[in-house]
Amino acid sequence: MNGVHQALGRDFDRLGDELVFRRALAQEGRLGPIRWLSMLLGVAGTYRKHENVDVIYEVGGRRTVATLTPS
User: Fold this and answer.
1) Full domain range(s) for residue 31
2) Does the residue 51 lie in any domain?
3) Alpha carbons within 13 A on the beta-carbon side of 53
4) If you ran DSSP here, which 8-state letter would residue 25 be given?
5) Do residues 64 and 56 make contact, with C-beta atoms less than 8 angstroms apart?
6) How many Å apart are CA 57 and CA 65, to the nearest integer?
7) pLDDT in the model for residue 61
8) DSSP 22
9) N or C: which end of the chain has fewer CB within 10 A?
10) Which of the residues in the chain have pLDDT under 70?
């Protein structure tokens, strides 16, 4: 998650076809009009937490990466 290795049983569990993390994953919410205006004017950017999970797995001997977003 965000470049940090997560271990099954320590950081997350697998329930069926779902990954359940033991801590909450942060997602950046919708930006309001003031934030959009400040970004447009170059006054501020958006520096909120936004975590993605990259899952690396093999299918038919080929390594594949899927980026997941929390639901």
Assistant:
1) 27-68
2) yes
3) 19
4) P
5) yes
6) 6
7) 92
8) S
9) C
10) 1-2, 26-29, 31, 36, 44-51, 70-71
